[in-house]
Amino acid sequence: MSQTLLPPGWVEKLCDPYAVLGISVIADDRQIFKRYHTLAKLLHPDRHAKNCNSDQKLATAIFSYLINPAYAKLKNRQKRLIAIAMLRSDARVLEQKPLSSQSAIAQEMMEMPTPEAELFYEEAIACYAEAQYKSLDQFYQVTQQITILNLVYLRLHKPDLFLPQKAVTIIPEVEKKPVELTLTEVKPVLTNYAQRHYQRAIEYVRLEKWPLAVQELRDAIKLEPNNSDYYALLGLVHLKQKFIGMARIYICQALKLNPQNSLALKHASELKIKLGENTNPKSMAKAMSIAALLSRFTQKKSSQVKC
User: Which of 123, 127, 254, 277 has its CA 20 to 30 A from that of 218?
Assistant: First the structure.
């Protein structure tokens, strides 16, 4: 296998290991490991056996010469520090020039207040990660967009606010109060993978590890999109982070799915939600703006790789 199987310049230009894996720069060890093994399955030669031979070879080359080196950097804490330092240097260079017209999502992120931009960043990375390896024709472009988002995120944070030696929260410090969840409000029953994500989210909520709780709940909702408990707990997590608009969206969705959801009912009055109220269309449109921007991006025909 030769590196020349990759299109010219890919190894040099796709030098952000976080972007190659499709994760944020605040990903912890567990998230890095989980994403690597997901990509190992996605790019396995057997998955591309029905495609043309060049696709199969390209998938193997991407995994060997891009994903494996990226994972090797990020699983080693010292190398991870070096990778972040290099990205910070690139972020400083980016700060001296305007974002390209192809970085619509990054532009929108830069215009937001910092707390909202942080949440937007996590959601955008998650959306891009879903599309990144669905089509190898899109891989290069999507990865570049993730790199730009990572650089913009680093521009929003001073070095002393980012500590890659340990899990880093993207939420400003708030007054810590014990989060009490009763068994009548949350049902930690491990019946399937979605429930396992939900159970872990409950533990993260109790530990006030909000970003980790959000990630687990996103994974649960992907598996069971009509479970009101997941939306109710996600609404509570956003409420604890002072993201009132997002909290209202998820609490409303929980009540829409189950008007008797005890956790959603408990916080509905605090969020000034009237029983029977549907999610505000404007708020929902705002929450879905990332997916819309990503959809427009991925609809463009790629000219980087052809079968």
Answer: 277
